Amino acid sequence: MTVMRWFAMQESGVLLGHFEPVEADLLGLAITQLLEMLNAGSADPELAASDAVFARLLPDAYRDDDEAAAEFRRFTAPGLLERKAQNAQIVRDSLGVSETSEADATGPGAASASGANPDTDTNTDDRQPITIPLDPDTVQAWLRSLTDLRLTLADRLQISPDGDVHLTTEDMPFLRELYEWLGMLQEELVYVIDV
Asked: Where is the composition biased (Low complexity) (predicted)?
């Protein structure tokens, strides 16, 4: 029997997400940074065409024809990035992350999405877990955004097609744990909606 930790389907048919405050903060920070990156790529097509992370998010449609791939990307990338940003915004809104609570930090000890620093904020442990109702459209946005977060982290971790991590900086353990945690969230969410 599988034990559910983050997501549960109620008898009423409503899907609920349950997160500890630090988990919600971390997810809110990650989704905010994803949204900022997607908006930057939408605003700057050259960035989207040259940054490796966008190559993971928007893989080539024609692997053996660079010219056709570039032309396809030119016409489809803006719309795809916009839809990815809309999904990320839905997740962000469902987490209750406000525009004024954005933080620009990564790694252990980073400021949380609510503006608190887990290493210095003594009230972090006093906060109650949060419960988030997820309608079907929101669930789809969560699934797509979790995929986009993992693809982005895969690029940061320099994960090769064989699954090996090649990043050797001090950020690697935290980023790998985050990558794996997001995978567990995604797997559980898929399981809950398929049951």
From this structure: 103-119
CA dist 41 to 16, 48, 85, 144, Å? 32, 5, 10, 17
In a domain, 102, yes or no: no
Number of domains in the chain: 1
Residue 101 located in a structural domain: no
DSSP bridge pairs for 133: 16
* DSSP codes joined into one string, 105-148: --STTPPPTTS--TTT-TTGGGSPPEEEEE-HHHHHHHHHHHHH
**What pLDDT, in 10s, does the model give residues 48-98?**
888 889 988 988 777 787 788 778 777 788 889 999 999 999 999 999 887
Q: Establish if 104 belongs to a structural domain.
A: no
The answer as to whether 35 is a domain residue is yes
| pLDDT tens-digit map of 93-142 | 999 887 654 444 443 333 333 334 444 444 556 889 999 999 999 999 99
